[in-house]
Amino acid sequence: QQQVKQSPQSLIVQKGGISIINCAYENTAFDYFPWYQQFPGKGPALLIAIRPDVSEKKEGRFTISFNKSAKQFSLHIMDSQPGDSATYFCAATFSGTYKYIFGTGTRLKVLA
Amino acid sequence: EPEVTQTPSHQVTQMGQEVILRCVPISNHLYFYWYRQILGQKVEFLVSFYNNEISEKSEIFDDQFSVERPDGSNFTLKIRSTKLEDSAMYFCASSAGRDPSYNEQFFGPGTRLTVL
């Protein structure tokens, strides 16, 4: 099953709070899980990515937590800022294909 | 910083008409893609293109769709006879290498297609 399920659809967080977006997948052949960030009027841009051989990856305020046995991964944005307000897409892919399989997106709004 | 560009940003057309969406990939990239996102739904892969050939396509990419690299810089998506359900945001992307696990796909800002 080549789906990636993403939740929540939208999220409102106070400035300084933690934003958490969750994704789940079925296909155990997936071997790369990127998160894309999209601002209005712009295309999705790679934010951070993880491979299933690690359980966590951190880049600045952004962390991916990965649970291989549960087939779930999540994006945590620490100390959320108004500038983080955007739509976030999780995705997955595997060697042998050209495509990313995307989740439905989460619209994040960080209140000042 | 190099970026993928797309024109037009918004295209309105009548059902049954042909449309061509245009993209200029990043100049040294060799692999090109089209994705689409119907409002409120997920971003879906349509097609990948390399060396003037389709390398992979989804079940959405039926005979009414075609892609072309008419010159050294442009990459186009043609929809021959548009349907209402073709209304969506269409994203072009490009990458330097084949494997998406190791080669980031860079996305353009999208063309919003509205079919009336």
Description:
The complex is a heterodimer of chains A (112) and B (116). Chain A is mainly β. Helix content of chain A is 0%, strand content 53%. Chain A is built from no helices and eleven strands. Chain A is globular. With 116 residues, chain B is an all-beta fold. In chain B, strands 2, 4, 5, 6, 9, 10 and 11 form a seven-stranded mixed beta sheet that branches. In chain B, strands 1-3-8-7 form a four-stranded antiparallel beta sheet, with no helix packed on it. The chains are: A mainly beta (112), B mainly beta (116). Chains A and B meet through strand 10 of A and strand 4, strand 5 and strand 10 of B.
The shape of chain B is: globular
Order of helices and strands of chain A: EEEEEEEEEEE
Characterize the main sheet of chain B. 7 strands, mixed
Largest interface: which pair? A-B, 27 and 27 residues
Helix % of chain A is: under 10%
Sheet/helix structural class of chain B? mainly beta
Number of helices of chain B: 0
Number of helices of chain A: 0
How would you briefly describe this protein structure?
The complex is a heterodimer of chains A (112) and B (116). With 112 residues, chain A is an all-beta fold.
Reconstruct the topology from this structure.
The complex is a heterodimer of chains A (112) and B (116).
Chain A: E1 4-7, E2 10-14, E3 19-25, E4 33-38, E5 45-50, E6 56-59, E7 62-67, E8 72-77, E9 86-92, E10 101-102, E11 106-111
Parallel strand pairs in A: 2-11
Antiparallel strand pairs in A: 1-3, 3-8, 4-5, 4-9, 6-7, 7-8, 9-10, 9-11
Chain B: E1 5-7, E2 10-13, E3 19-24, E4 31-37, E5 43-50, E6 53-57, E7 65-68, E8 75-79, E9 88-95, E10 106-107, E11 111-115
Parallel strand pairs in B: 2-11
Antiparallel strand pairs in B: 1-3, 3-8, 4-5, 4-9, 5-6, 7-8, 9-10, 9-11
